[in-house]
Amino acid sequence: MTSYDACIIGGGVIGCSIAAELSKRGYKTAILERGKAGNESSRAAAGLLGVQAEWDEYDPLFDLAKESRRMFPEAAAELRLETGIDIGYEEKGIYKIAETEEELHLLEQAAAWQTAAGEPALMMTGRELSEKEPLLTSALAGGVFYPKDGHVIAPALAKAYEQAALARGTEIFENTAAEELLVSSGKAAGIMVSGGKVIEAERIIISAGAWSTPFLKHFQCGMETYPVKGEMISVLSRKRLVHAPIYKNGFYIVPKREGRYLIGATVMERDYSKHIALNGMMGLMETAARILPSIREASFEDAWSGLRPQSSKGDPFMEEHPGIKGLYACTGHYRNGILLSPAAGKWMADLVEKIPAGGH
Ligand code: GLY
């Protein structure tokens, strides 16, 4: 029998960030991962840190998202120092664009709300957009620039958190599926894994993304997560196409290093399949070519899909079970797992240590 202070179900970017933080604070921590760490939605993500691009109006998660975005420069430096991995952190802003006057009006409303919330939001005419990003179509009605948003290389971030967790003492058990949570006298006691082996732990944290539902049944309030599949394409271009991500209604083109551009992403609810339909790819390519005509000349590199973990309440579950001591959930980060990963690690470690929010 193996015993830990904390055992995390799920080795995605959220689970690894929590493990890295708990190990740093001296907790003997393990991660159980049914496949390979960081190999699901963490690997598939575009890596947008789109706090303002994703939220157009107030949501309780907006504040945590802002806090997480603020943590990235330090997290990037710390992860690089500890693991040697460059997470490709870029704070060059995100452009949100409008093709019609109606869309521009909605952007104006969003920008006014952002400004009132104390976040910079610069409205731009179509001409001003063309001055900044000359290869965008000249047919745009305008847009808004959010200078504090940015992006990272999602697979690098997931790998960096995994390596940091390992370096700080976390043990990661890959190809090890959690099968049953063990609760004794109202307290978390451990997890039974495939083959019947028991991992003892006083604290269990459910971070299994779209696969969390079977474990969440202990919360007995209908909590569930489900997949929202997204398909994405990468292309390569020697010519610089855009300098910062271009975003429109959930569609985006994200410039990465070495001439790579990610084009994403489709949205398919409750689809666990990984296949990439031509339909989705064609929709992405058509929108990309309309907004950024020069992308037609780029070379196709790859296409993939990932399963965003949506939660039944719309926002992530990041809480301790009210009745079972030591049982926690941190899952359902939907479109924002990469963005929220630094804050989620700290939030959950603070919960474990009973440090009130905003403490330290
Ligand atoms: N964060 C962007 C997406 O989920 O497509």
TrEMBL record:
One of its GO terms (cellular component) is cytoplasm. Its EC number is 1.4.3.19. InterPro entries: FAD-dep_OxRdtase (IPR006076), FAD/NAD-bd_sf (IPR036188), Gly_oxidase_ThiO (IPR012727). Coiled coil: none annotated. It is an enzyme of class 1 (oxidoreductase). Keywords: Oxidoreductase, Thiamine biosynthesis. GO terms for biological process: thiamine biosynthetic process; thiamine diphosphate biosynthetic process. It catalyses: glycine + O2 + H2O = glyoxylate + H2O2 + NH4(+). GO terms for molecular function: flavin adenine dinucleotide binding; glycine oxidase activity. The keyword Glycoprotein does not apply. Residues 5-351 form the FAD dependent oxidoreductase domain. The keyword Nucleotidyltransferase does not apply. Pfam families: DAO (PF01266). Pathway: Cofactor biosynthesis; thiamine diphosphate biosynthesis. This is glycine oxidase. It comes from Metabacillus mangrovi.
